[in-house]
From TrEMBL:
Keyword Metal-binding (UniProt): no
Coiled-coil portions: none
Pfam families found in the cross-reference section: DUF4306
Family annotation (InterPro entries): DUF4306
Keyword Transmembrane helix assigned: yes
Superkingdom classification of source: Bacteria
Protein's UniProt name: DUF4306 domain-containing protein
Organism: Peribacillus simplex
Keywords: Membrane, Transmembrane, Transmembrane helix
Annotated TM spans: 7-27, 72-93, 100-119, 131-149
Amino acid sequence: MTFNHFLQMIIAALFFMVFTFCTWYEGSEIVERPWEWKYSTLFTHVNDEQAIDAVDISNFDHFVYAAKFKPLFPLLMVLAASYIIILSGYILFKRRIKKMALFLLGFGVLFLFSSGFVSHSPTVGGNIFQAFFLIGGMIAIMAAALYYYRIPRGFNTFMK
């Protein structure tokens, strides 16, 4: 791993941590909205528990609430995480074209499935995430195809 890749990884990780903190902070608003607990406390309801008090709400539900109603920082958080994952894949599979193309294809399919998972959300954040995952998945699949069927090497010298 070169210094350039290491620096990119550190910067992306710092952005991810800042966006995670901002998302968690914005999502903590769910504690003050008990009428939303039935719809936005997915992680609290995993163990068939009902949120009776604000202290019963899982910290992960703060992220769900923020993604549904204040999607800016959750979207930036997913973008930073995606960048870290794609950069890691590039570092691992830089010289293996088929494996890198398969990695990008898997990432694109994961994004398309994520788009289908949030497609029935009535909130603004759900619609934004659906569009982001759909567009990101298509871009990743196109990048996989372009990476697999590389542009001829002579074309790269033409572009300089």
